[in-house]
Write a structure and sequence with these properties.
- This protein has about 290 residues and is an alpha/beta fold.
- Strand 5 and strand 6 form a beta hairpin.
- Helix 3 packs across helix 5.
- It is elongated and about 60 Å long.
- The chain starts with 7 loop residues before the first helix and ends in a 5-residue tail after the last helix.
Length: about 290
């Protein structure tokens, strides 16, 4: 897990990085590309789920699943459909071209991969400054976990998801009942988490011993859409907790959704708690684990 915050403001300052990120979110999925194209094609600002389903030749449920992976940052979720975001209205074809062609994407000069290519496309996409309200935080910054220290307990990868959830609820001071069901957006939602001396609404996704190996987006939910559903919660703080190693791709996906949610002007905080940090938490609050 990274030891430093994700440089959101620096990320936002580079237009090519923004376009490259958009192309990677659309990705190689033919269905996601079709949904993105249909939403932006033509003068209509909003396309209904039914329209998209009919045009793309896929089920409405699949439109919701794949569209949900882009909602917030690339398209706007509205009642009954998806709406264009003005930032991409004139650039969606460029984004699609790079999503479909890996070489085109690789040729785009970015801060992390500069290219001395005068023929590289010039990008004029801009995100609202409000997107900078999305910030990555660590477990050490959360007041509710203030007892945490450097001592760590091992064996976190053998804990059941329900056990981890119960421990977090007790530490936070949440006494509600949180049973898993198919339509849930988060595993634990609470307004009792304290951060910066104040209570903040928090949505948490847990992964226990039922998940093995490094945690990557494809292991987040049956359709790999768990992070997208997590960010649909009316929360300010979003966390992914896993007893093993969390890949940076999880943080990148969380960053994209956090930026999209922050465009409404609200502060959005996000972070991950991996096996090492979970072990520190268990050592600090042994009676709950």
């Amino acid at each position: 897990m990274p030891g430093a915050t994700v440089p959101v403001s620096d990320f936002l300052s580079n237009l090519n990085d923004q376009l490259a990120t958009a192309a990677r979110i659309v990705g190689r999925s033919k269905h996601r590309q079709a949904i993105f194209r249909i939403v932006y094609r033509g003068p209509k600002q909003i396309k209904t789920i039914e329209e998209i389903s009919r045009s793309a030749g896929i089920s409405q449920m699949h439109v919701l699943v794949e569209g949900g992976k882009m909602a917030g940052l690339l398209i706007e979720k509205v009642s009954g459909g998806y709406k264009k975001k003005k930032e991409f209205a004139t650039r969606y074809k460029t984004i699609l071209a790079m999503a479909k062609n890996k070489k085109k994407l690789e040729r785009l000069p970015t801060k992390t991969s500069p290219k001395a290519n005068s023929k590289a496309p010039k990008v004029t996409v801009s995100f609202p400054s409000s997107a900078q309200k999305a910030k990555f935080i660590t477990i050490d910054q959360i007041d509710s976990f203030s007892k945490i220290g450097s001592q760590s307990k091992s064996g976190m990868d053998s804990l059941r998801e329900q056990k981890i959830k119960q421990a977090f609820a007790k530490i936070i001071g949440e006494s509600g009942s949180f049973k898993d069901w198919g339509g849930e957006k988060s595993d634990l939602y609470s307004t009792r988490t304290r951060l910066g001396g104040k209570r903040v609404a928090t949505a948490i996704a847990f992964k226990g011993k039922g998940t093995s190996g490094k945690l990557v987006p494809s292991k987040m939910g049956k359709n790999g859409d768990q992070i997208g559903r997590l960010f649909e919660e009316p929360a300010e703080l979003f966390l992914v907790v896993y007893g093993g190693q969390i890949e940076p791709s999880i943080i990148s996906q969380m960053q994209a959704y956090a930026m999209g949610k922050a465009m409404s002007g609200r502060r959005v905080l996000y972070g991950v708690i991996d096996g090492s940090d979970l072990g520190r938490l268990a050592a600090a609050y042994p009676k709950y684990f």
